[in-house]
Amino acid sequence: MQLLLLNGPNLGILGRREPGIYGTDTLADVEASVRAEVAARGWEVVAVQRESEGALIETLHARWDTVGAIVNPGALMIAGWGLRDALAAYPRPWIEVHLSNVWARESFRHESVLAPVADGVIVGLGSLGYRLAARALLALVPE
Questions:
Q1: Per-residue pLDDT tens for 1-33?
Q2: Distance (Å, rounded) from C-alpha 71 to C-alpha 73?
Q3: Is residue 25 within 8 Å of residue 18, measured between CB atoms?
Q4: Is there a catalytic annotation at residue 130?
Q5: Which of 2, 52, 83, 117 has the fewest Cβ atoms nearer than 10 Å?
């Protein structure tokens, strides 16, 4: 049983990228925390970070056999229509996560084209949001 942890553009530089907004945890820290959350259930985490929408879509299509997904699309939340369509077709529950509170930032970040097809959305809690998304998926996916 595998959980997909999918991260979009610019998330590979977490820890160095605007730490006042995104925190000091690295993507490796985030991945380790998600692994710890789901380990008791026997789930493995398949962590993928890509800079392009097409690569994220290809990853999602290749991982339809996962039990669910945690997705931080980064800025693709704003205009990632292809990713939105791929996520709408994804046959498992998935949670959209954003490190920062997008509604406390620039107005162009106030709407996600992905959120309407997500099972849940977590924003503004930093890397804790990923752990909470993992807990939510543990509750959503039957044993």
A1: 999 999 999 899 989 988 887 788 999 999 999
A2: 6
A3: no
A4: no
A5: 52
